[in-house]
Amino acid sequence: MKKTSFALAGLVALGAAFSASADQFEDAIQYRKAAFTLIKANFGPMGAMAEGKMPFDKAAFAARAANLEALAKMPWEHFIEGSDMGDTKSKPEVWSKAKDYKAEVDKFEAAAAKLATVAKGGDEKAMKAQFGATAKTCKSCHSDFKNK
Length: 148
Ligand code: HEC
Prior knowledge:
Layout: H1 2-50, H2 58-71, H3 93-96, H4 98-121, H5 124-145
Helix pairs in contact: 1-2, 2-4, 4-5
This protein binds heme C.
């Protein structure tokens, strides 16, 4: 009797493990997209300020730059092996050219960290320049690793 219930528990656990791994890929895709959505939610207003479409507010810009520095670290752990299919715009090169992808990640993280530092300094011209440099790293990665 005891043995049967152990075996049954084992089967249930196995079933749970299988369904978890199927959901795992969908979750990973959702998490990384959510991170990019938040990145955009902070980057967009900075861009509007940098381009004069919104009044330049140094404190607001610096707060968003600090958010971006933290958010810039978040999408990457969710590019797990096997999450290249489904509702995703990631190109297969994310995985097949993992080294190049990592280089783009590093460039972006460094640019975002610098943007946060520059923004703390409060020099509007330098903030705009570093915003531009950071935007280039988004585009550079998207052109090689993201489908339109
Ligand atoms: C190192 C590569 C890389 C960098 C840097 C990068 N992205 Fe992306 N981004 C991607 C990939 C890959 C996807 C596709 C994600 C998916 O659908 O699986 C994506 C998707 C997105 C999306 C769409 C999310 C959705 O819901 O479909 C937005 C918006 C976005 N990125 C904005 C940005 C912005 C803004 C920056 C810079 C501030 C940036 N990204 C920097 C690789 C990058």
